[in-house]
Design a protein that fits this description.
Elements: E1 3-14, H1 16-25, E2 33-39, E3 45-51, H2 54-61, E4 67-76, E5 91-92, E6 98-106, H3 109-118, H4 128-137, H5 148-161, E7 164-172, E8 178-183, E9 188-192, E10 195-199, E11 211-214, E12 219-223, E13 228-232, E14 238-239, E15 244-245, H6 250-254, H7 261-267, H8 269-282, H9 284-294, E16 306-310, H10 312-329, E17 334-337, H11 338-345, E18 354-359, H12 365-376, E19 380-385, H13 391-395, E20 398-401, H14 414-431, H15 441-463, E21 468-473, H16 478-492, E22 495-500, E23 517-522, H17 527-538, E24 543-548, H18 552-557, E25 560-563, H19 572-590
Parallel strand pairs: 16-17, 16-18, 18-19, 19-20, 21-22, 21-23, 23-24, 24-25
Antiparallel strand pairs: 1-4, 1-10, 2-3, 2-4, 5-6, 6-7, 7-8, 8-12, 9-10, 9-11, 11-15, 12-13, 13-14
The structure holds 2-deoxy-2-amino glucitol-6-phosphate (AGP).
Length: 608
């Protein structure tokens, strides 16, 4: 995700404390590495950066002592390109005349870096933020101080070269302005007395000024201490926009205007899914990951098995991954709970086996214990995690990031969606399918979030009085039923069990009585079969709530219907996750519980 902040002031003064404070307010966006750059009135650049969290790096490098009239801070959430000094931002251009930093993903980063090297530029790291700086550099002629027109022309040309979604801020030592551009990532401007600033997000601006200007995609901002100008990247035309006054509390801004981080993170799902797909489509890491999966069993004396290992929500993603690999690619994968892996398979693991360990935090002890056994027995360790630099990342032969940014709320939401998206992408690749079909997920997730929020709230009003209920899914929707039930348990304190729907009649059906709620998840194509399972419940007085695509026969058999668009049956479970999350969220709020920090739970479980 990453966060950027830039400021320009009329007087040379200690900018360091402002850069540090603004950086801390963006720390939720990334904490693998951090850096600050200041430029003095005479054009001297002071660049300090390092690996780690902002407080630790600042204590080492003394950010508060930095002075200047322009400053940039960046907090990095590593995706590809390990957290390291050279990859930490901001970055210099070849000669050290410009400094800049970005947020987002440049998906043709590798090709651009090769181009810069061929053209004789000095490329120091592998980070795509450095690519943004060089992309501007290559369109400046290098002689003398660039004018505003030169900088604007170079940034517009860089925009044409850089593929992906990003925002960046850049300044030239001899040009007394700060420039920023937005393409897909957040960017907002602050206008103060004798200063202007720009940031990925409002919380870093509000302590400085409440006068703000929203930047839209395809716009370049030119900041001086007294003025802020907007230009269209398309035709270079000047854009007029009125400033706004933000009078809300900073805490609300931190949550993006949502009452809880959980709701904010649910609403971030379309964007993070889109960003992950961009990354997966362009990264050589995916080929290495797939090669390792395909190599499973390729050693003599052992047929080799593929395991998918995780806990809680991450385990549910593993279960969905197993359905995807089987149904799309004919590849058998065994989903296993982290702590169960050693007990059930530990002694039979060998060098022909591969396990994909899945963890948001990358620190879950139950998962890491299994990684250790896998290593000891010579199997391949593949990792999928959200937090780069985590123990799981370092223990993996090959890893793939979830690229969700910081997930603050204890209930995992956006990381589950991206785990599912990642497995679907891998299954498509194993099956030789065109992954372009997955690009629709961004818009579909957006649509389903908007369309199901109110219906989910109204279903939660019925469920609110029940302390015991069931969520049923069949095949591809079984993991969604488990995940929906886990969300409900976590943040409402009700008991909710997720079950494979055909299994319900083998025992749990006896719990059903008048009004007893059972929620059914039916993927497109499974509706007629699900009607049987629904009727087993309704004839006994139960209340059936369906989450399904439009289907008149199913709808006429249930009491409540949460409509999810009728799309490809493999994409559908990912969409159906959203109303499941929203039902749990609204029921939690209705019960007066803080869904972000439910009792007894912790975001990262580093104990046995
Ligand atoms: C999810 O909402 C829970 N907070 C929990 O089940 C979580 O998924 C589990 O503890 C695993 O965490 P991890 O993904 O960081 O390994």
């Amino acid at each position: 995700m990453c966060g950027i902040f830039g400021i320009i002031t009329s007087k040379d003064h200690p900018l360091g404390p402002t850069l540090l404070e603004s950086g801390k307010r963006l720390a939720y966006r990334g904490y693998d590495s951090v850096g600050c750059a200041t430029v003095s009135a005479e054009g001297t650049i002071d660049l300090r950066k390092g690996v780690g969290r902002i407080d630790d790096v600042s204590a080492d490098l003394d950010f508060p002592a930095m002075r200047g009239v322009r400053g940039i801070t960046q907090l990095r959430w590593a995706t590809f390109g390990s957290p390291s000094y050279v990859n930490a931002q901001p970055h210099l251009d070849s000669d050290g005349d410009m400094v800049g930093a970005h947020n987002g993903n440049v998906v043709n980063n590798v090709q651009m870096r090769e181009l810069f090297i061929r053209e004789g530029m000095t490329v120091r790291g592998t980070n795509d933020g450095e690519t943004c700086v060089h992309a501007v550099e290559r369109h400046l002629d290098g002689d003398g101080t660039p004018t505003q027109e030169d900088m604007l022309a170079a940034i517009r040309a860089a925009y044409d070269d850089l593929e992906g979604d990003y925002a960046f801020v850049i300044t030239h030592r001899d040009d007394h302005r700060l420039y920023a551009i937005k393409k897909g990532s957040g960017l907002v401007v602050g206008l103060g007395e004798g200063l202007s600033c720009v940031s990925s997000d409002l919380p870093s601006i509000l302590p400085i000024t409440r006068r703000i200007l929203r930047v839209l995609d395809g716009e370049i901002v030119v900041l001086s201490p007294e003025t802020v100008e907007l230009y269209s990247v398309g035709d270079g035309a000047n854009i007029e926009r009125d400033e706004e006054f933000y009078d809300g509390p900073i805490e609300v801004a931190e949550k993006g205007g949502y009452p809880h981080f959980m709701l904010k993170e649910i609403h971030e799902q379309p964007a993070v899914a889109g960003e992950l797909l961009h990354l997966l489509n362009s990264s050589p890491h995916v080929d290495r990951f797939l090669d390792a999966m395909r190599a499973t069993g390729n050693r003599p004396g052992n047929r080799g098995s593929l395991y998918l290992v995780g806990c809680g929500t991450s385990y549910h993603a593993c279960l969905l991954g197993a359905y995807y690999f089987n149904q799309l690619a004919g590849v058998a994968a065994v989903p296993v709970l982290g702590p169960q892996f050693i007990e059930q398979y530990g002694k039979s693991i060998g060098p022909s086996d591969t396990a994909i360990f899945v963890s948001q935090s990358g620190e879950t002890k139950d998962v890491l214990n299994s990684v250790k056994v896998m290593r000891e027995r010579g199997g391949r360790v593949l990792g999928v995690m959200n937090v780069l630099g985590s123990t799981l990342m370092n223990a993996s032969d090959v890893y793939l990031p979830l690229a969700c940014g910081y997930e603050i709320s204890v209930p995992a939401t956006k990381t589950f969606v991206n785990q599912a998206v990642l497995f679907l992408h891998l299954a498509y690749r194993l099956a030789g399918r065109d992954t372009a079909a997955l690009d629709a997920l961004h818009d579909l997730l957006d649509l389903v979030t908007k369309d199901t929020e109110e219906p989910a709230r109204s279903v939660s009003a019925y469920l609110h009085s029940w302390d015991d209920l069931y969520y049923l899914g069949y095949g591809l929707t079984h993991p969604i039923a488990l995940e929906g039930a886990l969300k409900l348990k976590e943040i409402t304190y009700a008991h909710c069990e997720g079950i494979f729907s055909s299994e319900f009649k083998h025992g749990p059906l006896s719990a059903v009585h008048d009004g007893y709620p059972v929620v059914f998840f039916a993927a497109p194509g499974d509706e007629m079969m699900m009607i049987n399972h629904v009727n087993e419940v309704t004839v006994r007085g139960g209340r059936a709530i369906a989450v399904a695509a439009p289907h008149s026969a199913l709808q006429s058999n249930v009491h409540d219907y949460l409509v999810v668009p009728n799309v490809d049956r493999y994409l559908w479970p990912i969409l159906a996750t959203v109303p499941a999350q929203l039902v749990a969220y609204y029921m939690s709020v209705a019960r007066g519980i803080d869904p972000d920090f439910p009792r007894n739970l912790s975001k990262t479980l580093t104990v046995d």
